[in-house]
Amino acid sequence: MAAKMYNGKFMSWLQRSRLGNIERRIIAYVDRPQVIYPHVRTGITGQVEIGEGTVLSLRVRIDATGHVKIGERCIIGYGAKIHSHSHMFLTGRVEDITADPRVKTWELTIGDNVFIREEAMIMPQAGSIGSNSIIGVRAVVTKPVGPGEIWAGNPARKIGQRA
User: Fold this and answer.
1) Based on the domain organization, do 22 and 38 belong to the same domain?
2) How many domains does the structure of the chain reveal?
């Protein structure tokens, strides 16, 4: 029943009222691009470098545990995620997963003029995405992408080459 309150007339009234300004500010804050440091309390922090003219859309998340370098004039689409670390839980039993120190950081380089589409995930083991590349919508990139290549799918694979 509560879900029906937030449709049509109520929402338009809310946006016109003073509360609507608050709502828009809250949404803008929540949806903003973020650089996150998930392992800062263990002393593991990296750097993020973003080139001139690069555009980060809403809800983009960049993990700064490792080193991430994004080139110039790139477009990172809505909800894309760029990861720079992984956990080494391949062997043994972990009693407290939040306190386990086995974190591997990676260096991730994204070249110039790259278009990463909406909700794509760049995994740390990708290592590099070459200049002038395109990553498709919701692609999960786990391997290095060469210059001018077009990748899509889950897991992502090369589907074309830019001329």
Assistant:
1) no
2) 2
Query: Residue 11 is part of which domain span?
Result: 1-31
- DSSP letter (8 states) at residue 93: -
35-60: buried (b, 16+ CB within 10 Å) or exposed (e) per residue?
beeebeeeebebebebeeebebbebb
Question: What is the torsion angle, in degrees rounded to the nearest 10, for the CA atoms of residue 64, residue 70, residue 74 and residue 75?
Answer: -10
Cα distance between the two ends of the chain: 54
What's this model's pTM, rounded to 2 decimal places? 0.75
Closest CA to 114 of 154, 82, 71: 71
Residues 14 and 65 placed together within one structural domain of the fold: no
Task: For residue range 19-52, list pLDDT tens digits in order.
Answer: 556 666 666 666 778 787 777 777 777 889 999 9
94 and 144 both lie in a single domain:
yes
How far apart are alpha carbons 143 and 131 in whole angstroms?
A: 15
